[in-house]
Amino acid sequence: MFDGLSTRLNDIFEGLRKRGALSEADVSAALREIRIALLEADVALPVVKDFIAQVRERAIGQEVLRSVTPGQMVVKVVHDHLVEMLGPEPAEIDLAGTPPVAILMVGLQGSGKTTTSAKLALRLQKREKKRVLLASLDVYRPAAQQQLAVLGQQAEVPSLPAVLGEQPLAITRRAMEKGRREGFDVVILDTAGRLHIDAELMTEVAMVRDEARPTEILLVADALTGQDAVTLAREFHEKIGITGLVLTRVDGDARGGAALSMRAVSGRPIKLLGVGEKLDALESFQAERLAGRILGMGDVVGLVERAADTIDQEQAEKAAAKMAKGEFSLEDMAEQLAQLRKMGDMEGLLGMLPGVGKVKRQLSEAQVDDKMIARQQAIILSMTPAERRRPKLLNGSRRRRIAAGSGTTVQEVNRLLKQHKQMTQMMKKMGKLGKRGLMRGGGLPPGLMPFGR
Q: Hey, which CATH number is domain 303-448, 1.10.150.120, 3.30.70.1120, 1.10.260.30, 1.10.260.40?
């Protein structure tokens, strides 16, 4: 998300940084470019106007224009206002109340409510240690209730059994009663959606809200929504009273304006981001981090958190012990590649590293992506155990056999072996550092180290 906006803004800021001094005219010209970039990213016009006005007020002040690094100061002003617009305070899911507390998921059809409901249930169960019950109120979309039940099974979260012909209000009562009777902490109510906002939808959601008295009413919206996001947020907030926003498909090729617009129009915080299809691909929203990613500053904290969530600690400690001895076999490399793939798509991971935006073209030409990682895994898996442990055995004929077996080329096999050799040399140097090495405590996997060509 925000790829286009991030690229445009970085180009604008690069031009500002190159200037030793800035005049008011320079800042005004840059703000015009920023205004166009925000509009092209589908940020609503009123939101853009307000944002530019606030940035202008600060950016043309004496403290900026007369500073030692005026270009950098303008970037800081834009960053600070982005954080302010997105919501400076992290907003957690409100679970305060007499159990079971209800969480109402609302939104249009196709926004990802059902999948997000299951993701949220898994998150609350795993992170907050809560007993969660899922209940589908969607009696209109074919197999909607079965879909939630299947997702619940995958997340190992119980769901309310469907009763043929039962209406949403009755399902709500039964879900809350079951929650009270069986000691659940949270009941997540997945409401029905429509293709567009209508009176029937709003009336039904309002009745469910009044019955369940939820602590949270979360509007689930697709990050690709665009300009319609403003109408969606305004209508749901005015008629239902939402408490927060959840943006889905954030990992997609979205222009990202929906996030900025919906937060500004509704005045309600963005609480969660859906960053992938897997059930654990749901992240807390933090404005500081997202603003950093938009402006090409990266999100190293988010990267480390994702690594901590997905990397097997025991396996990481074993790898660290081997590396301390300067050992790093192709089998170890295959394990690290597998860990890296579990963390998510490469483009998203690289986007969390500071300054990567400037070398995106080179990364693209080097074909550093998920397919490359998969091909490297296939190459290693096509080797015999002896070859993985002793790469020196790999002569020309063996390399041709491995290339044929993995569906790759001999050049790709050679490139992987060169990369492994470079990483082995690095591990030996790190081994001399002892516990101060990079993998101390199971840090970032070596798969994130520079890719050889």
A: 1.10.260.30
